[in-house]
Design goal:
With 324 residues, this protein is an alpha/beta fold. The chain has two domains: 234 residues, Rossmann fold, CATH 3.40.50; 67 residues, Alpha-Beta Plaits (2-Layer Sandwich), CATH 3.30.70. Strands 6-7-8-3-9-10 form a six-stranded mixed sheet, sandwiched between helices. The chain has a four-stranded antiparallel sheet with strand order 2-1-4-5, sandwiched between helices. Strand 7, helix 6 and strand 8 form a beta-alpha-beta unit. Bound molecules: adenosine-5'-triphosphate (ATP). The site of adenosine-5'-triphosphate has 12 residues, from strand 2 and helix 2. GO terms for molecular function: ATP binding; ATP hydrolysis activity. InterPro entries: AAA+_ATPase (IPR003593), ABC_transporter-like_ATP-bd (IPR003439), ABC_transporter-like_CS (IPR017871), P-loop_NTPase (IPR027417).
Length: 324
């Protein structure tokens, strides 16, 4: 099945967001080139790519903040574009740059944004309390934003996008430049939003973050979506292998020789007191490898399975490292 076919299949079954054939040029530069993907309710989808890959432009198209040269976006069954407001009310957009009033408190900022969403009175106050809890800032509600760390401001900015209970939350690199504590809090919150049934679209150039948070990842490079899937699917599709390192004593040469004959093992080498295996489905291979050690009269002291990561996938696809 081609990549495009896989994307279309998912579009057909998706609940919340379907972006099809999106393209955008700025002058003679193509920022986004025929990008299609879909995000379902309860799913966190990560757009992963290096600086300048086209992530921000893609999500601005998705949010109807930019007019596409080609393609269309549907959210919750409604078309989204700068000319149509129908689907935009279902989206909560958290831009890269924080937009808050520093001389207002956290609660006052949320009240301001809540009124823009036409929330008023008791309903607004109750929703602000809920949102402050969701972003872990309830204890700082009465403090002015000017006293907040960069990470806390970022969290409050996320809160502003949640007030109207969006079906789709779109976050543009929400953890860039924030302190580790806020980074953790943001990632925890995003995880909870997904678990609570919201569809989340998330951009990042941090593959470890994408691996931890996202159910599926779309890899974007030079404006094109070059692959998508779960981490495991991407790794498997590209034929990347797992590494198993077995620290052992005894006849390691015999142990490695037996391992070479195991189904799924593509290579077995001895280095010092370790046997290194290369193969697919590393965790599944482990019991057979341990049985082989016993047959060879070797004793395994420790075993470590290293699965290939998205960095390896990206390198494989583009020939360059993600962190250039
Ligand atoms: N308003 C604009 N005018 C001209 N070129 C633009 C504009 N916005 C984006 N671009 C160009 O489009 C390309 C994609 O940019 P975009 O901001 O979407 O990338 P990105 O993946 O979000 O990068 P980053 O991680 O640095 O935010 C870049 O080459 C950028 O210079």
């Amino acid at each position: 099945m081609t990549q495009q076919a896989a994307v279309s299949d998912h579009t057909a079954t998706s609940g919340v967001l379907a972006a099809s054939g999106l393209s955008k040029r700025f002058g003679d530069r193509t920022a986004v080139d025929d990008v299609s993907f879909a995000v379902s309710a309860g799913e966190t989808y990560g757009l992963l790519g290096p600086n300048g890959a086209g992530k921000t432009t893609t999500i601005r198209l998705v949010c109807g903040l930019l007019r596409a040269d080609a393609g269309h976006v549907v959210v919750g069954g409604a078309t989204v574009s700068p000319a149509s407001t129908a689907g935009r009310g279902l989206i909560g957009y958290v831009p890269q740059d924080v937009a808050l009033y520093p001389d207002l408190t956290a609660r006052e900022n949320l009240a301001f944004f809540g009124r823009l969403y036409r929330l008023r009175g008791k309903a607004l106050r109750a929703r602000i309390d809920e949102v402050l809890d969701l972003i872990g800032l309830a204890d700082r509600a009465k403090d002015k934003v000017e006293s907040f760390s960069g990470g806390m401001r970022r969290r409050l900015n996320i809160g502003a996008a949640l007030l109207h209970r969006p079906t789709l939350l779109v976050l543009d690199e929400p953890t860039v430049g924030v302190d580790p504590q806020s980074r953790h809090a943001i990632m925890e919150s995003v995880h909870r939003f997904g678990a609570g049934g919201m569809a989340v679209l998330y951009t990042t150039h941090d593959m470890a973050e994408a691996e931890r948070l996202c159910h599926r990842v779309g890899i974007i490079d030079h404006g094109r979506l070059i692959a998508e899937g779960t981490r495991r699917e991407l790794v498997d599709r590209l034929g990347e292998r797992d590494r198993i390192t077995l620290a052992a004593t005894g006849d390691l040469a015999a142990f490695a020789a037996l391992c070479r004959d195991l189904p799924g093992v593509e290579g077995a080498d001895v280095t010092g007191t370790e046997v290194h295996l290369l193969g697919h489905g590393g965790r599944r291979l482990l019991p057979a490898a341990l049985a082989a050690a016993e047959r060879a009269g070797a004793v395994v002291r420790s075993a470590e399975v290293t699965e290939p990561d998205l960095e390896a996938v990206f390198l494989h696809l583009t020939g360059t490292a993600l962190r250039d």
